[in-house]
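New to this. Look over this protein:
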Amino acid sequence: MTGTTYGIVVGYDGSPGAAQALRWAAREARARGTTLTVCLAWTPDHMELPTESALCDLARQHGQEIMTRGLPYAESVLGPGRVHPDLASGSAAQVLCERSRAAEMVVVGSRGQGELPGLRLGSVSWQVAGHASGQVVVVRGAWRPANRVPGPVALGSDGSPAGQAAITFAFEEAVLRDAPLVTVCALTDAPGRLGGSRHMEEDFDQAVAVAAKEHPEVSVDRHVLPGTPRAALLSATAGAQLLVVGARGRGGFDEMSLGSIAQAMLLYAPGPVAVVHEAAWAR
């Protein structure tokens, strides 16, 4: 994509999840040869502060202190000139969604500060994954397991036009990481019409074949499975270093920002999940 101004944007609030996301985003920015914008929304969620007040100044100063602790690692990976701090006023989810319109991707941790214990996915991550533009990566799980060779990039697709953006992004990531690509198409949820599964498989094969022709260096391991998409993806991609899915597939309602498969992967995938919104590739 062209015309982006923020490079890769990572949401940061000083939490362990945000630190993990920052590490992932810094390495991604280095691999892509782009900049990293570290975004911290210092205004407390669900609280309106007077613009000129001691409480507002204190919140902004606290945000600056958190930002200062997070920048050194990113700068050690990319160099100071390619890391840009972004202290913003407003809701974290709203700020990140706004930044996403001019970013290559947005990266968030699975949970941030103040989330309830036991939550699989925090509210900010959920909102950003559903409403941001382009690619959103939610960093979760052991994305760099110690003493193990990194796994493949995995792709879940149903061959729909909406899934084409996810296919393109998955091949890009496989190239960047010099990793094989595991593609998964599950047929159980095929459209309820005669020959639906066969048409889905044909669309899937054709879409992957086009991308594979453009990236001959990527080794593709194709899986067409009879199970439900949720079970098939979780099983086939257990060791993947990144799972890529489209924000929505063939089913669901037009008003849905995230399809059921994307939602399930965000909640249960063992590693980072990239949710790709089709609009990114139309810009």
In short: DSSP finds eight helices and ten strands in the chain.
